[in-house]
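question for whoever is on the cluster today: can someone run the full assembly for these? two chains, 381 residues total. i dont have access anymore since they changed the login thing
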Amino acid sequence: MSSEDEAAFAGLMERQWRFACKVAWAVLRNVADSEDAAQEVFLKLLRSGGWRDLRDERAFVARAAWRAAVDRMRLDRQRGPLPPDEEMAGADAGPEAVVVAADWERAMRGLIDSLPEEFRQPLVLSAEMNSREIAAAMSVPEGTVRRRLMRARQLMREKMAALEERRYARG
Amino acid sequence: MHEDDRTEFDDRIDAALRRYADAALFSEPRVALARVRMLADQEPQRRSPWRVWVWAAPGCAAVLIAAFALWMLLRVPQAAQIAWTPKAPGVASVVRHADLQQGSEKRNTGSSSSLRHKQQRQSFAQQDNSFARPGAERRLPKQEVFPTPEPLSLEEQRLLAFVTQAPPDVKKQVIEAQQHLGDPIQIAALKIRPLDEDEKQIDSTRKDLR
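^ ran it for u. tokens below:
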């Protein structure tokens, strides 16, 4: 690989590494696994040399990272998944305890983590991509993505309302 | 979602989503780049699994073709052979005649019929190789045998024994007798000479004794 190619590949990783990690993290919720999935994407790109011909590198990286993460999640289900990062996921503490402690951020994380996967993944990806990009990455119709996003927000709203009712009832 | 429908809670969700993944402490891109390059240098380019079949497939095909050709060669029926050619009478007759004599001795000594048949079968099996099927040793492939080998009948055995064992003058007489089967029987004229004195006495003595 020439020095120009090396510089170009380094630029690609500089631009897309964290994005790939975030896409993978939306599925895996574990930093180490997410980095492994993203690393797998760039390793394949480097070996195949296909990174030189990318037209939309962001869309390609999003799709490749999401597929790598899904494959890794399937393997983890067979082997026994790694636990989500504790400082990231509020599920361990429980949404009720988090709300009672008035820690909104942790409460929101807990609510996001408590969503079903089909709603949680597009919702988390929506922080980085629009619905069309999410649809391309997940290989589902854009309408499906929008419907799931709406349903995810509705579920979070309902859960948060229920938790606040309990909080005020106690307090 | 329309902007009018957005609530304060939606803004909170968006803010939480932005921090959701940002809070994860991913490696720096240059660190990840170094790791990817190291892995790319360490692991050789994995060969495509189809590359193996480039050589394996023609090899398998050649083996299959060779096996099929061999099978076809073994399967082709061979021309029928005349397995049993009559041999000169003296070749097998010695054994056969001895067997016949042995069988007659056994019969005279009162041996059982089953033993006699068994010995006869053994003697027939030993006496002439022409009775054995030519493909029996090789077992496969089975070949056609013509004529079907059968042991000689009793009449054939006796005829063979006579032809091989009888003295030449007897044979000649039999042949001549066969040639003159239709001729009338000729009896030579009898010439009886008169009895002398001694013969008369003997003849009278015999009559007295009776």
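summary bc i know u wont read the tokens: Chain A touches chain B at residues 9-10, 13-14, 17-18, 21-22, 25-26, 31, 34-35, 38-39, 42-43, 46-47, 85, 87-88, 104-105, 108-109, 112, 123-124, 126-128, 149-150, 153, 156-157, 160 (CB under 8 Å). Chain A has eight helices and no strands.
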